[in-house]
TrEMBL record:
Source superkingdom: Bacteria
Signal peptide segment: 1-27
Name of the protein this chain belongs to: Branched-chain amino acid ABC transporter substrate-binding protein
Family assignment from sequence similarity: Belongs to the leucine-binding protein family.
Coiled coil: none
GO biological process, one term: amino acid transport
Keywords from the UniProt entry: Amino-acid transport, Signal, Transport
Gene source species: Lampropedia puyangensis
Amino acid sequence: MTTFHLKSVATALVAAGALTLSAGAFAQIKIAVVGPTTGALTQYGDMVKEGVDTAVEQINAAGGVLGQKLETVSIDDACEPKQGPVAANRVVNDKIGFVIGGVCSGATIAAAPIYDEEGVVMVTPSATAPALTDGKDYHFIFRTIGRDDQQGPAAAKFIISSIKPSKVAVLHDKASYGQGIATAVRDDLQKANIPVAIFEGINAGDTDYSAVITKLKSSGVDFVYFGGYHPEMGLLLRQAKEQGITAKFMGPEGVGNPDINAIAGDAVEGMLLTLPADFTQNPTNAAIVKAFKDKNRNPGGAFQLTAYAATQTIAEGIKAAGSADPEKVAQYLHTAKIASPIGELSWNKAGDLNNFEFDVFTWHKDGSKTVTK
């Protein structure tokens, strides 16, 4: 059989499982929510879960989709690349046709070929690495967040126009997400003739970054960009301050976690970061924001509203296709325009959003953030 036929068979089997489920007494459509429920990055999974839960509650309260209720199934991948395929195979074995996740790029990249080959619609609200979709020719893989090559240039543009540093260090955590966005920032800075004195990877999970901090100090950089997540950024900030470094630090949305305050202490004050625009400020989202707050959930985190939009994407896809068949839903999404709290969603052939808005924020030691641009 050709790959197309194998995929069609797999899709039909997943669809059959979904239809069997929907024919049951409770007539539910299952959606797997895949992300970290264990490990160092669980808060990102919590952000996604808050968005999914809020959307599911509102959709079900309004009658569900095609007369069926949505039901979520939580599956842990710990944000680890080696666990991505394990989680994906569980989804397939459980005959679940729709996935929100993964959360981290590495695990999502590792899982995506399985979802696509087995005909499972996957919508990630947070995996930003271009490598997820570049050159893959996927049919079932979508995002409700922009890519690093959209986020990186947004950061670089701000650095060039507003910071105007004389010498920059660009660090990363050697992973798909962190290194990818750091590279994008470095390239744009160099194009603008801003000297990048250091471009270097650090080991995620280490507790002592004194060697690279010493290098920052001796090089005389006045700005540091770090591609990675909050545990490492928090340590870099704290240890840099301890060594008397006054350079401004900036990172991507992966550093925007309230836990960074406990790690960095007062050194976190003034950290810059790119995040999805603060869609909570849009008056048309007032009812959605209230729904979050009524459940004591935070609608203003990095991924809550992108996760809400991912849930909405699947629900609208099923409704428009008139079926819980993942093949029909994927086919619809490739041509769809869906109104969502993060703006109108439409996708290119690769499953990437045609448009997405990143803004620059300043993080404060009390855990709050303010829009800087």
